[in-house]
Design brief:
The protein is built from six helices and nine strands. It has 204 residues and is α+β, with helices and mostly antiparallel strands. Helix 3 packs antiparallel against helix 4 (136-144). Bound molecules: thymidine-5'-triphosphate (TTP).
Length: 204
């Protein structure tokens, strides 16, 4: 399946997972790392606004330099018991996160921002993830692999963190970091991409 796009597309992200997910729609795009201060204020329980705000911040930082492009930014957080769990700062913190999630359900929010001609479109998705009862040996073994440290909440559902998951309610890709089905729907609705037979008009 191929889409056409009228302008160059940029993913403002250093996440290899987001790059892989955006590749699924077959549009050529460039990746530009977006260095932003992720410490923005969270107004009580307004998680959607928080992730969409950070996604916009990431996208704008890149869009300011690439004005002729469509720029996409995203942000993912884990929320449990009304607390936000970002990437763990230390292995001890990762262990603490995973112990707290054990046998319980947490929510993963991913916000997305699309900047085109300085106009923004933002949306978010939320997926609930229920963890199995985890034993300490499994948690320690996982942490020793180094996998949790670059991931919100300290686990990757797409990596060995899958061993912790009992069930999910919602879109899997939202947990990995980019709700690609909804993103494609929004890009199509806004007329930014079009489904076409044959090749894309831009070369990768
Ligand atoms: C919960 C969960 C998160 N994650 C990842 C998605 C995000 O990449 C990361 C959350 O951090 P983010 O700050 O959203 O993203 P990032 O720093 O990796 O990339 P960038 O800001 O440059 O776009 O956690 C997984 O890969 N799997 C999971 O199961």
């Amino acid at each position: 399946m191929k889409f056409t796009i009228k302008k160059p597309l940029i993913l403002a992200s250093s996440s290899p997972r987001r790059k892989e997910l955006l590749s699924l729609i077959g549009i050529p795009f460039d990746v530009v790392h977006s260095q932003v201060d992720e410490n923005i204020a969270l107004t009580a329980d307004r998680y959607p606004e928080y992730v969409m705000g950070l996604a916009e911040k990431k996208a704008r930082a890149v869009a300011n330099k690439y004005r002729e492009s469509i720029v996409i930014g995203a942000d993912t957080i884990v929320v449990f018991d009304r607390k936000v769990y970002p990437k763990p700062a230390t292995e001890e913190e990762a262990e603490q996160f995973l112990k707290e999630f054990s046998g319980k359900t947490h929510s993963v929010y991913t916000g997305v921002a699309i900047i085109n001609d300085r106009e923004k479109i933002t949306f978010y998705n939320k997926t609930d993830v229920t963890f199995r009862d985890l034993d300490e040996e499994l948690i320690r073994g996982y942490i020793a692999s180094g996998d949790p440290m670059d991931k919100a909440g300290g686990y990757g559902i797409q990596t060995a963190g899958a061993l912790f998951v009992d069930s999910i309610t919602g879109d899997y890709q939202t947990v990995v970091g980019l709700p690609i089905a909804k993103l494609t729907e929004v890009l199509r609705k806004e007329g930014l991409i079009e489904l076409k037979d044959g090749e894309t008009i831009l070369d990768n």
